[in-house]
UniProtKB/TrEMBL annotation:
Protein name: 4-diphosphocytidyl-2-C-methyl-D-erythritol kinase
UniProt KW keywords: ATP-binding, Isoprene biosynthesis, Kinase, Nucleotide-binding, Transferase
EC number of this enzyme: 2.7.1.148
Membrane-spanning intervals of the chain: none
GO molecular function: 4-(cytidine 5'-diphospho)-2-C-methyl-D-erythritol kinase activity
Residue span(s) of domain GHMP kinase C-terminal: 206-273
Catalytic activity: 4-CDP-2-C-methyl-D-erythritol + ATP = 4-CDP-2-C-methyl-D-erythritol 2-phosphate + ADP + H(+)
Pfam families to which the protein is assigned, alphabetical: GHMP_kinases_C (PF08544), GHMP_kinases_N (PF00288)
Keyword Chaperone: no
Function of the molecule: Catalyzes the phosphorylation of the position 2 hydroxy group of 4-diphosphocytidyl-2C-methyl-D-erythritol.
Length: 289
């Protein structure tokens, strides 16, 4: 028996940090959605009572450090499951990119094992478990468009944003999320209009959504990595409707209505940036088979 699960990348349409909490995490408010760039997981039952990870990507650990491993272990331990699985991860999302690739793999593992082991857990129950693995995992379990609050685990689903093309570009370096949060100066934040972003998404107002893209973590990552600003500038010059860094970076995305413009941005970045993708926004509940 096996199940297949898609694990899509996320982008943050807005990301605000409200304050630092006593537990050293930051209280945040984000509007997030998923894009059509996804890892593919094949989860197969094996005869031994253990979790095996298979991945050909040299940046992805194939042991207990893998977030998919941690998700499987958490589910096994929480529900006393004495069965084993092999989790094969076809890695298409760039690693340490600000696209929540690892978190999405963990979420896909929770969804997949819920089916494989017929656990009957609801999305909310899986999302609650996911929060124990990482702040982005609950959102990834929902696998839709949503507002995320708390440290990222308090999810309110939203309708899909207005349809558009998304061009993603990841510079070569990876960025440590922890270090970006640590360096953020909370006194000088220009807070994005989260409420306005939510309204724009709900109304299907594409221009409103473009005008309200905002990510306070750019304050840290942009000055540290000039390549990120260069990509933003290049995308704007090539006709993007709006441009923003995703998560803690370094991936930058642009939104465009016209496919021809998306192609123009893609072509303008090739040779200058190794990993560039033109994808669609998802944000609907996906058929995961
Ligand atoms: C930047 C985002 O990706 C935006 O979606 C998330 O906020 C980060 O989500 P994540 O990578 O799943 O984060 P975690 O693995 O839970 O935390 C990594 C580190 O980021 C910092 N962190 C994370 C989330 C949060 N609300 N406040 C924080 O300060 C903490 O130092 C933590 O040790
Ligand atoms: N399944 C996985 N896929 C990718 N990286 C993983 C995975 N499991 C563990 N990791 C580790 O997690 C680190 C961060 O990877 P990931 O691609 O999830 O970062 P990210 O996209 O910046 O995450 P976020 O946007 O949530 O901050 C990697 O350097 C890698 O060592």
């Amino acid at each position: 028996m096996y199940v297949l699960e898609k694990a899509p990348a996320k982008i943050n349409l807005s990301l605000d940090v409200l304050y630092k909490r006593a537990d050293n995490f930051h209280e945040i408010e984000m509007v997030m959605t998923t894009v059509d760039l996804a890892d593919r997981l094949e989860i197969t039952e094996i005869n031994e009572n253990r979790i095996k990870i298979e991945s050909e990507n040299r940046f992805v650990p194939n042991d207990e450090r893998n977030l998919a491993y941690r998700a499987a272990k958490l589910l096994k331990d929480s529900y006393g499951i004495r069965r084993g699985v092999n989790i094969k991860i076809e890695k298409l999302i760039p690693v340490a990119a600000g696209l929540a690739g690892g978190s999405s793999d963990a979420a896909a593992t929770l969804r997949g094992l819920n089916r494989l082991w017929s656990l009957g857990l609801s999305t909310r129950e899986l999302a609650k478990l996911g929060a124990k693995i990482g702040s982005d995992v609950s959102f990834c379990v929902h696998n839709t468009t949503a507002i995320a609050r708390g440290r990222g685990e308090v999810i309110t689903e939203l309708p899909a944003p207005p349809a558009c093309w998304v061009v993603l570009a990841k510079p070569t370096m990876g960025v440590s999320t922890k270090s970006v949060y640590q360096q953020l100066n909370l006194d000088s934040i220009a807070h994005p209009d989260t409420e306005g972003m939510v309204r724009s998404v709900m109304l299907g107002d594409y221009d409103g959504m473009c005008n309200r893209l905002g990510n306070v973590l750019e304050d840290v990552t942009l000055p540290s990595y000039p390549e990120v600003q260069q990509i933003k500038t290049q995308m704007s010059l090539s006709g993007a409707d709006a441009v923003l860094m995703s998560g803690s970076g370094p991936t930058v995305f642009s939104l465009v209505k016209q496919e021809s413009r998306a192609d123009r941005i893609y072509n303008s970045l090739r040779g200058f940036c190794d990993e560039v993708y033109v994808v669609r926004m998802l944000g609907y509940h996906q058929s995961l088979d």
